[in-house]
Amino acid sequence: MVEISRPKLEVTRNLMQILVRTAPQKIKIVEGARGVGKSTVLADEMSDIAFEMPQSTNFLQGRTYQQIFTRTLPSTILSLQTLGYKNGIHYTIGQKPVWKKYNYPYEPPLDWGKTIAWCTGAVWVMLSQDVSSRGLNTCSGMADEYCELDPVKFQAETLATLRSGKRYFENNRKWLSQMYVSSIPRTQEGKHIYTYEQGALAKPQDIFYLRAPSVINADNLPSDWFKMQRRIMSKYEYDIEIANIRPRAVGGGFYPAFNERFLCYDAFDNDYLRGLIDEGVGYDRTKFEKLDCREVTDLIASTPLDIALDYGKFCCIVTAQETFLNECNFLSSITPEESGEMLEILVQRWCDYYQPHPTKRVSYWYDQTAIGKDGRSPKTYADIVVEVLIKNGWDVDQQYYGAAPEHSDKYKFWSIAMRNDHPMLPIFKWNRTKCKYLIESINNSAAKEGKFGPEKVKTDERKTHVDQRYTTHQGDAMDMIGYFKYSHFIESGQGLWLPSRSM
Q1: Residue 366 sits in which domain range?
Q2: Which pLDDT tens digit goes with each residue over 121-158?
Q3: 427-481 pLDDT, tens digit each
């Protein structure tokens, strides 16, 4: 039997982490800000269960495997390291344990490639909501970014697995326990987490719900971290991400028909992602740091792509593709990795991501804003985009439309298009993960009354201290693809609308 004694290390915990770990309730939820230590909460819970319920089977839930492999596991592994636990010695990821005299779980998993197996015989099965969890039996569970989960699937599939281990653990404090951590939900769909808050008020003996701002973990953060976050964020963003203040909904938004629950989807190639975990080596996070378009299943190999950009000090690229089922899927939105990133670098990253796509044809949709220059090059934005695409082997169909349409016309177009019931328009959908910031842009786009009707409020674009990923830039790029490519299918003769001016 491998050594299963717990490492003896002196560790420091903030007040939130202490309260969570000592709370007696079976169900614990942490709604925490950035840098508050949520990964440490998961690591503590996993460590406790591994030694208090040896040979138990448990679940680790994510919306997708991609989320687990790229976001949950790296931070959880680092937190486990601070406790003295080492991958390959105390636990393994994505491989069947080979320790001598290893005591297997009472209910061993059928697929070790989706597990975190501990030397105590306890195992966590990683669950993704785009794959059925039916048939599994578990003794406890945890989830990262709980607000991103589909609550209906979670209730029907995952929670139904909490039924195992009565014979062995009935009197154990961790049996059938649940631990969920999350940031503040940004969308209406994510607010299902608040049902636990209501439950905690009604039954405090059963449910523990804790909200925590970043300052509670100040001793473990760099001394100038808060000052830096204030400098790079708007007050609105700082209140959400750092102070953990829940945002008010944007009233009268520019995209009133947008409904994330019905218009967004997940489409990761789980076989490809799991193939990156070699059974002989296990999980290597470096394999998930530079993924390309092979990670998704919504990209049609034989079909060209559509792109549009927003330009200036902040540039972004939105990508869409028509399908054979009369759909227009927004596949991704790519943003700068650092402030002031050159346009050619951004376009090159787009080319790197879509390099495996076999049909190297792309329609580039742009208006007069692409004819401008940023002063760092004599070339126009459009020239730079086309040059980089061609250099990478893409056949570019340039779709130039001159002056941008009125805001009111785009507002009317999307008010019709996002209902997905117009006979002349495709069904519009958005990849939930790869279009994360585009969806944020849609949700955060307020509207005001203008000369011709509703106008998009774009004041945050002029604020240099605001994180521009959350502003209206990406919605503007999306507008170009949607409006330029499809608005002419909507005719005034059908009793709908007539553009304020011709394109």
Answers
A1: 260-494
A2: 999 999 999 887 777 999 999 999 999 999 999 999 99
A3: 999 999 999 989 988 988 878 877 767 888 777 666 666 667 767 788 899 999 9
Residue 240 lies in a domain: no
Residues above pLDDT 70, as percent of the chain: 92
Nearest-10 Cα torsion for 209, 215, 218, 222 = 120
Question: What's the number of CA atoms in the CB half-sphere (13 Å) around residue 53?
Answer: 32
Give the Å distances, CA to CA, from 182 to 26, 31, 165, 168, 209. Answer: 17, 5, 27, 31, 11
DSSP state of 426: P
Query: CA-CA distance, 309 to 399, in Å (whole number)?
Result: 12
Pair (85, 195) in one structural domain: yes
Across the strands, what pairs with 428? Answer: 328
* Cβ atoms < 10 Å from Cβ of 197: 15
Total-model pTM = 0.80
Strand partners, 305: 362
pLDDT at 503: 43
- CATH number of the domain where residue 300 is located: 3.30.420.240
Report the C-alpha gap between 200 and 209 in whole angstroms: 6
Structure tokens at 447: 């509207």
Q: What angle do CA 211, 264, 467 make, to 5 degrees?
A: 55
Specify whether the CB–CB gap between 40 and 76 falls below 8 A. no
User: For residue 186, what pLDDT band results from cuts at 50, 70 and 90?
Assistant: confident
**180 and 265 housed in the same domain:** no
Contact 106, 179 (CB under 8 A): no
**What CATH number does the domain containing 137 carry?**
3.40.50.300
At residue 191, does pLDDT exceed 60? yes
